[in-house]
Amino acid sequence: MVDEVRKSLNSVLAQTDGWQKSLKRIVESSRESDPDRREVIEQLLSLEGSGPGLSYLAMAHAITMAQTGQVTSALNSWNRASRNHGGMLDAEAMGILGIGDEQPFRTMASKMRDLRSNYLKQSLIKNSQSYDLNEYFRINRALSGYLGEANVFSSFATQQPKVIYIPGLDTGGFLDTQSHPIVPALKSAFRDIQAEFDEVMNDQQVLKPFMGHAGQDDLKTYVSGNENASWDAFFFYRHGTRFEAAQQRCPKTSKVLESIDLCRIDGQSPEICFSVLQPGSRIEQHFGVTNARVVVHLPLRVPDGCFLELTDVGRHFWREGEPMVFDDTFQHSALNPSDKPRGILLMDAWHPSLSLVERGMFSNLIKAISAIELDRFLPAEHENV
User: Fold this and answer.
1) How far apart are alpha carbons 333 and 310 in whole angstroms?
2) Comparing C-alpha atoms, which of 331, 343, 326, 373 is closest to residue 173?
């Protein structure tokens, strides 16, 4: 009944007489201790889509949660409402929510920004036994840049992480492959992995678009070429979720992947797949999300002329059985000009310059960011951070 609930909520809130009664009741309900009432409100807030009803409900919920000290839920709802309204609400909505005029709203917005900043800074040292100040400084500096509290940028114009940049990890784009700790295991297992890749390619129906269910316009942003151009994948992990069927189908590949030190953050990483760039296809220029991790390729089947290009850095022509490591926060693209598919094993690994403590801090930070900025409610025990 999701659609019906959404329609009803938007319909009620669209009526002049219904606005104030509905939102006041929502605020009152979310203050009450009855878990069923809270569950209904949080289910409404989790609905897909937007619209005035859900947006103002999110704002009412954010204000109420902040007043009762439930930081995670407050920030989650505030973020959702702000996205839908460009960060501001109109005067009518502010009056309905009992914040009167623009100045109290700005005060509340400032409070929410402070809550967000403190919540994320506290997350860095959560569960940390001990740490060196230099280790803390680097990740805290990255957070300051993410929050817009400091100018933290790469010295390379073509390095622009989409989410968060950690200073002091400048690589120039391509890393020294031979010194990376996971490379020897990949080279030793190359023939076994290649054989399992070939078996998968005999049944290409198991391949999925790398970009998932993106619309045609989004796909064109990433992939170009002939009429059959495509970037496909056979996933072992996607956003940190393990695909059991893939692991069972390729047991030797799975065994290697589980034995090496990859970037593992619950619910976020790693991303591991057989990446297949179909004949005549080009992956357009794009940036990765963070330089905390690097991307490792093990080329499995590579026709002549296939390459990866980092803008203003150079091209790398893949060679079967020869791993390569690069920082994908540098603008990069790829081309398969041949009439055969290009196949590689693609995976996320930690940047080798990050210490174990820094990895832990960064993992805590990413989990905290996802908790308050991906429309997700955490269990009650995580509320009062």
Assistant:
1) 7
2) 326
Provide the 8-state DSSP code for 243. Answer: -
User: Virtual CA dihedral for 357, 324, 168, 266, nearest 10 degrees?
Assistant: -40
- Report yes or no: 329 and 276 within 8 Å, Cβ to Cβ: no
Residues 277-313 have pLDDT tens digits of 999 999 999 999 999 999 999 999 999 999 999 999 9
Task: Return d(Cα 7, Cα 140) in angstroms, integer.
Answer: 43
Q: Which value, in Å, is the radius of gyration of the alpha carbons in the chain?
A: 24
The answer to whether residues 211 and 218 touch, using CB atoms and an 8 Å cutoff, is yes
Q: Is the pTM higher than 0.70? A: yes
Look-up of token digits 């920004």 = 113
Question: If DSSP states are collapsed to H, E and C, what string results for 253-290?
Answer: HHHHHHHCCCCCECCCECCEEEEEECCCEEEEEECCCE
Eight-state DSSP code of residue 213: T
